[in-house]
Amino acid sequence: MRSIAFQDRLRVTSRLRSLTLGDWRFTHLPDGFCQLRPDGWYVGLAAADREYLLPYQDTSGYLVASTGGLLIEHGDQSVLIDAGFGPRRIGAQQSHPALGALQGGELADSLASLGRKPNEIDVITFTHLHDDHVGWALLEDGGLFTRAEYVVDALELRAHGQMLPQRLRGRARAQAAGGQLVPGLEVLPLPGHTAGHSGFRAETGSGKLLVLGDAFHSPAQIAHPHWQVLFDADAAQARASREAILVEAAREDTICYANHFADVVFGRVVPEAAGYDWEPLPVGATGML
Ligand SMILES: [Zn+2]
Hints:
By secondary structure, the protein is an alpha+beta fold. The protein contains 7 helices and 18 strands.
């Protein structure tokens, strides 16, 4: 049975959470949140699905989705995967009907609380180019990350490169799916949510860390990979990507990271009789802060 603490962590956005595997450190840098309307975000939910989603909702009835980025530190290299929503807010009245409010703005402070400076980041990449993942890269003044190399999946750059300001499009390096971003960190094609949507796999020597990106937006979807997301560009492809990555995610040597998963962004995918479930890493577990 799930503990009280676990239940509470489903209803709040993520705090700064770090996981150490071998000589790799992975840190979720909180930026803010977006609220997802269960009926609307997911298409064609049954009554039983709506009931299943109740523990994942905030007091206004929205699914809780964190936003932020994953800082990966290994040796003298630092990589940031995704750059949050950025310092802005869109109220529930102004957003899409499938959403509530969206708010960012914490990522710079999250990084500072680790004692790291934005210009120390070597590489910035994105799971995809939706605006809740590229926010801090869009700032007019050139953004925070003046020194970083920007790397974007080649397909994603072609399909959604217009999201990026001209100054970034010019300097972004197109990455072929399946390549190594830096030694030990591989890019995994997970198409469907967007054409060039990517996950990542870090081989740390002390287990693997699998970045799921927006293949999943709620821990509830791990048990329901067939749920269609309104914003999946290709619903059939997105479902196929989810089902395929779950097989790898469920391996014993693998821990997963999912940017939007409330305050349970690090966890394991565990096999269940009828599929899979999400088992959050307990706070205070070995290597987990
Ligand atoms: Zn997203």
